[in-house]
Amino acid sequence: MFGLRSDGKKVRNIDPFMRLVPHIMFDRNDAMVMQLQEIDCENMDKYILEKRKSEGLRLTYMDIVMASFVRVVSMRPKLNRFIVNGRIFKRNNIQISLAVKKRLTDEAEETTIKLTFDGSESIKEVMEKVHKTVNENKGDIKNETDNIAKILTRVPNFFIKVMVRFLMWLDKHGMLPKKVIDASPFHTSIFLVNLKSIKMETVYHHIYNFGTTGLFVSMGKETLEPRVIDLATKEIGVKKIMKMGIVIDERISDGLYNSLSLREFKKIMENPYILDERNENVVLDD
After folding, report:
1. Buried b (16+ CB within 10 A) or exposed e, 231-266
2. CA 221 from centroid of its chain's CA atoms
3. Overall fold of domain 8-274
4. How far apart are CA 45 and CA 94, in angstroms?
5. 26/85 Cα distance (integer angstroms)
6. What pLDDT tens digit does each residue of the chain (286 aa) get?
7. Cβ atoms of 79 and 264 closer than 8 Å
8. Bridge partners of 192?
9. HEC profile for the chain?
10. Which of 185, 187, 162 is nearest to 176 (CA)?
11. C-alpha–C-alpha distance, residues 23 and 33, integer Å
């Protein structure tokens, strides 16, 4: 209440125009900006193979995506802001929510997990945390998100609507219990879906109005596509490309900041060796 929250602190030193924007675009789906990122997979494939041979690490594209976003947000902290009730907040930590299918069947339940980082992690530390948490949530195991969803859906449909709207009201006024925020996959820096794992192309997924998610990222399957290999000779070759649909709440920072941040993300993805070392220079939001 009064601008106080358990998951973030109110930002006070804001450009007047950016302070006005949340009062013009009230909801996240008013403020969605979408970008297609096309990632050249050559260096990622080389990196994954080298790590497997030299260190026995079984890295995946998703590990590199998550580690790259953790690194970018640690260097570009305005990406980790969120808007509630017209106020701009800076999040206390970096969090990534991930949708997980308990089994790869049509009938299998889907759950969500949320991982918390401080921004200093190397890719090995990110990978270990991701794989450990995913394995803990497979099969018949229920996490806190599952338990809260089960409680909310034990009542008739009318009461579900009332309870969800009540939770949204509590959230709007900073009174949503910390336990609910910690369990909610919608109160996160980034929501990630790995469509590559089910061999689907990328999509642009809307940002949820419930919660505080500032970015929604969709990983698509990789494809072989023609690309200019040498600008001088205009030589054209075939490259393996992974496309990613990124949707961002433009109210959290201006267009130039967002654009440069996503450019940095692409740079790290195509040179993942940067992620070998821990980040000792985490930038704090001013």
Report:
1. eeeeeeeebebbbbbbbbbbbbbeeeebeebbeebb
2. 18
3. Chloramphenicol Acetyltransferase (3.30.559)
4. 27
5. 8
6. 566 788 899 998 888 888 888 889 988 888 999 999 999 999 999 999 999 999 998 999 999 999 999 999 999 999 999 999 999 999 999 999 988 766 655 555 677 889 999 999 999 999 999 988 888 777 666 666 666 667 667 778 888 888 889 989 999 988 999 988 998 999 999 999 999 888 899 999 999 999 999 999 999 999 999 988 888 888 899 999 999 999 999 999 888 999 999 999 999 999 999 999 999 989 888 7
7. no
8. 98, 217
9. CCCCCCCEEECCCCCHHHHHHHHCCCCHHHCEEEEEEEEECHHHHHHHHHHHHHHCCCCCHHHHHHHHHHHHHHHCHHHHEEEECCEEEEECCEEEEEEEECCCCCCCCEEEEEEEECCCCCHHHHHHHHHHHHHHCCCCCCCHHHHHHHHHCCCCHHHHHHHHHHHHHHHHCCCCCHHHHHHCCCCCCEEEEEHHHHCCCCCCCCCCCCCCCCEEEEEEEEEEEEEEEECCCCEEEEEEEEEEEEEEECCCCCHHHHHHHHHHHHHHHCCHHHHHCCCCCCCCCC
10. 187
11. 17
12: amino acid identity, one letter: R
* Residue carrying structure tokens 């089994």: 103
Alpha-carbon gap, residue 123 to 114, rounded angstroms: 17
Q: Which amino acid is at 80?
A: N
Q: What pTM value is reported for the model? A: 0.88
Between helices 123-136 and 61-75, what is the axis angle to 10°? 120
Q: Under a CB-based contact definition with an 8 Å cutoff, are residues 31 and 248 in contact? A: no
The label of the residue with tokens 């009318």 reads 158
